[in-house]
Amino acid sequence: MEENQVSITLPEKIVEEFHLENETEVIVSIKDQKIVIEPKNKVVGNQTISLRWFLIPTLVISGLFLFYLFYSDKNQIALVGPYSIANFVLSLGVLSGVFSFIFFFIKGKRNQITTQSKDIYWRNFPAILLSFIVILVFSLLVFFKVIGLVFIGATLDRYTATLLFFVFVGLVNYFMIYSALSITPTKLTNLLIFVIIGGVLLSMITNKDYQWWQFNFSFLGTIEAKSSWQFNVTLMFSSLLMVALIDSLFVELQKAIPHSKQLTILRVLLTLTALDLGAVGLFPYTETGSFQGIHNQVAGYLVYLIVVLILGIKWLLPKVSKEFLTISYLIAVTLVAVVVLFQVVGYLSLTVFELLAFMLAFSWIVLLLQNLQKMAQNINNTFQVNVEHIPKKESDEI
């Protein structure tokens, strides 16, 4: 049975971006009920580069680790502790991962390798790099904390320790290289969610006062809290990530919709919201000192900005879906109800009020960013092409 042949003309933007000018074949596949067209040489390329390059820094760092063990005449080294494999991974391993991230991000920006990070701008790079470092260090700390509880007092000889160190550093480098090559606005949003939720939960868990919730949510960032820096740094890093994400999204949106006053106002309001979130962490809650009351003021401004955004979103973003508008208004009504239950009725405690307000506002911000991503994707990277059926006689001649 002969296959029906069709002809599809690809847009010029796709041909130039994927360097298909001299190509005669592409890979066509079906994924999640979608037709996916990929350059033929892309499938093998990415994995080969990743496997080759994450092994090189891993071997170099592992060699330095083994040399140090010989130089310091250490026959046994602890798995975790002050002088341990864990400490070397958190220092040498993280340093290796940072250099790998920077190296591959630069290569991607120069179009020397295939990457999804081409739309990430240099001005946003420091915030993104710091965020990945925080996530990496946080993950390693939790991992080695668990390992320390499972293998109490475990020590290894220098060769076994080097092999284990090699595995850990290899995973670190692979994670950082993969991240550098695959940063997209969608992943930045997921990163933002992880940083905020992970940082807040870590602050709750490590707080020395397990009754912190009897004070208020902001207590996690006060000097009385054991790990207040984690809570405050979480808010400041989240602020930087939001600014980077907003910048990336609106550059793409304003390419397709130039000179839009609504988009400009929305961008300014979202940027102010992000900066205000950072200010909440920068000025912790205190009842004494020169910064007394500033925390409450910036937290209040954050609420006002969210309310203005929700009420004005229909005008600021005319093409937004009805579902998102409905959810936005439901969140606004819920926020008002929470305020009434706290300030008027007195039913909610301060901690519950702050937690509910924070979760509702953060959820809406994430939904808005996801809608902006979808809009930018549909405008700039979605194309309508014509499918031309080739008659069977013509195909036989070909």
Automatic annotation (TrEMBL):
Q: Where are the transmembrane segments?
A: 51-71, 83-106, 127-153, 159-181, 188-206, 229-253, 265-286, 298-317, 324-344, 350-369
Supply the InterPro entries for this chain: DUF998, SpoVT-AbrB_sf
* Signal peptide annotation: none
The highest taxon in the source lineage is: Bacteria
Keyword terms: Membrane, Transmembrane, Transmembrane helix
Q: Using the record for this protein, list the coiled-coil segments as residue ranges, or answer none.
A: none
The name this protein carries in UniProt is: SpoVT-AbrB domain-containing protein
Q: What organism, scientifically named, is this protein from?
A: Enterococcus quebecensis
